[in-house]
Write a structure and sequence with these properties.
By secondary structure, this protein is α/β, with parallel strands linked by helices. It is built from 15 helices and 17 strands. β8 and β9 form a beta hairpin.
Length: 495
Amino acid sequence: MSIINVTNLTFAYDGSYDNIFENVSFQIDTDWKLGFTGRNGRGKTTFLNLLLKKYEYSGTISSSVPFEYFPYEVTDKEQLTTDVISSVCYDFQQWQLMRELNLLQVSEDVLYRPFNTLSNGEQTKVLLAALFLKENNFLLIDEPTNHLDVNARKIVGDYLNSKKGFILVSHDRNFLDSCVDHILSINRNNIEIQRGNFSSWLANKEAQDNFERNENEKLKKDIKRLSNAAKRTSDWSDKAESRKIGFDPKKVEKNINRRPMQAAKAKKMMSRSKQIQSRRQNAIEEKSKLLKNTETIDSLKIFPLKFHSDCLISIKNISIKYDDKIICENVNFQINQGDRIVLNGQNGCGKSSILKLLWGDNTEYSGEIIKNNQLKISYIPQDTSFLYGSLTEYAENHQIDERLFKTILRKLDFSRTQLEKNIENLSAGQRKKVLISGSLCQQAHLYIWDEPLNYIDIFSRMQIEQLLLTFKPTLLFVEHDKQFQDNIATKIIQI
């Protein structure tokens, strides 16, 4: 066991006026299984890169253990998998590798296949096994569940639970619960560590947020009362002061002998007014300290259209193949208005291909698709690499209301500074939010979303869940977040 000490860490990207971290201090035990969570764009991946010394920073990060980052970048994906493993850890014992692969339920034959022929799940498992072969290293595991199916996520979660000594960045609630014993959270104004899994952290977070909101309401009422009292006292003081000063020698004032008393009274009232004003200012300053870490989950809206027929799409005996390889075959289901259908299945079974086909992609297939030409579909792809340019340009190109588009992004925790950035300079989660916000701006009969939650933070996931349960749009989606499936899907289609 050793300790990673972070002391007075301050960091900002070149050209940025805002610090990502400012005077942050905490300690990490290298025996912990540490879950790392926080809103998109708050610096989770940045912090991992600081541990890896990729950027200059002020403050200190001290550690007696080396760091290893996941996902490991494979430069030559055509080489055999066993060679990829050797490039990650050159001095491993074969029996050790077999032990790790067995825990991850990976067959030995993958070692002798080109790495690029492995599925996403197999690649993830192999690289995790290779990294854990390195003893006495502290692993920085960044979003390992993206593109993994539900079963693969469970296997990887069980595997990590059997290990220790890592930071795990993930937004999958069930996955975090399955394999961490501490939570490191980047809040709005600080970083904190709590013992326990994600669910216990969230319960504590919600309790603290509710406490701060209640205290804030009390304080606002107190400030209002103090403001009213200060105004009354100030008016009284001004009136007394005017009596003291406003002497007209041409007029005979009956109570002229009372002037000294009026002056003393005015002075006293002025002093009282200043005291109340000072109390009010202190109360305002106290208020500013509250809600510093409270996460707001603003309500989102969607504008689904009603279709003239209950049945939107009927799929009969659909089969899809690429390069003479059958991806899926004899798929049958029907999409009716109000359905929220999730397609389930292992990685590579054709789920995304079906979504693209229904959206209108020129995918070769056999079977029958019955779909009305007047049906309006809003589509979110998995990939965000094609996104570039400003948010204004994106709105113009997709013919959506720019003001509404940016309002939704603000509700999804975009800062005003981030709204001015080009999309290619946003984080992976923020780019995904651009696609989601664009879809929410579109009026459609059917929404087709392909893994919309990849890289999306937990609080935004909750917002999207609330949206779908409130407005009940017709939705066909692929998503491997088990909790999201359980909360949203009205039907499950196994591919």
